[in-house]
User: Fold this.
Amino acid sequence: MNIFETLESEVRSYCRSWPAVFETATGSWLRDEHGKEYLDFFAGAGSLNYGHNNPALKEQLLDYLRSDGVTHSLDMSTVAKKRFLEAFHELVLKPRGLDYKIMFPGPTGTNSVEAALKLARKVTGRQLVLSFTNGFHGMTLGALSVTGNSMKRGGAGLPLGNAMPMPYDGYLDGQLPDFLWLDRLLSDSGSGLDHPAAVIVETVQGEGGINAARAEWLRGLADLCQRHEMLLIVDDVQMGCGRTGPFFSFEVAGITPDIVCLSKSIGGYGMPLALTLFRPEMDLWSPGEHNGTFRGNNPAFVTATAALETYWTDDKLEKSTLAKGEHVERVLSEITEAYPDTGMRVKGRGLARGLSFEQSELADQVCREAFDRGLIMETSGPESEVVKVMPPLTISDEELERGLALLADSVRVVAA
Assistant:
């Protein structure tokens, strides 16, 4: 028995899928303690959009540390935070015509969601929040209340209330027009449905199975929220920062959410950082009403700024991501056509793609075969039925081809 099994809790999960002890990482590659290389189609669950140890970001971080720059500062003002705020405003918000206040709630995605839910209830004076089937928003209690996965919800150990799920795009297979039933419930004073404070949604459900909502569905949801005076919260923790092409995943629909949750790759380097964005008139917080000890992660401000200045001064990364995503879709479609008996389907958008299997155990077998061949992939979906393809956005064309070939080999072995 090794030290991990001896001392670490049974709650660990990723290490069970990838039984190696990793030591170094660069770009799209991980290396274990024996020197074996693994191509990364996982990207830190979306936290490493710019790859491992990106040199443009690393140099900025090393310079900052060597200069004795402030590391921990709570919500005090620092030069690192000032530079990040300036870069985020000039390179992200201003070009998109977005007028948001920026809140640093704590270092992870679930912290951003908790702040969003709390603010929505504070602003509206209402409690109920609508969420979606197969949605995932984090592991703290508020975020779990709007999460669909029953196993994760069960871990709370107590009832999760003040939230109600409704069907995500495609969940009812087109049996009802989008939002017809919900619109009727909201319009009927005798329906028994309390007036919701907000709706929280992922434009592409990552953990829920790479389910991508149509642009017209997202526009319909935004219209529904406006007509019924509900706040629209977009959880862009995993799909933001360019994962679907544009910086924000909701840009394709032309909507402007009331609140946006960001984390994971906003830190640029895999450094913990989270933001909650909201309309200025919603900034009703009293000083200290929502805080956290590690909401002032200055090294993350440094790498986040470096990422914005390196990749978001033009649209090169966006175009590259869209082109690579379309190529991945073509290759995955070819794989499904080669093995029709598996019932595979291609899902996703941008560089968040998936292969969905009718028999969920096949997805797990494909990921195990891929690992044996030196490819890191995970499953997602309520039954872990989807093989998830999420490489760094900076992956080269050659590396992408190599990974897709390894995936095709893995599917071939499992399908046989």
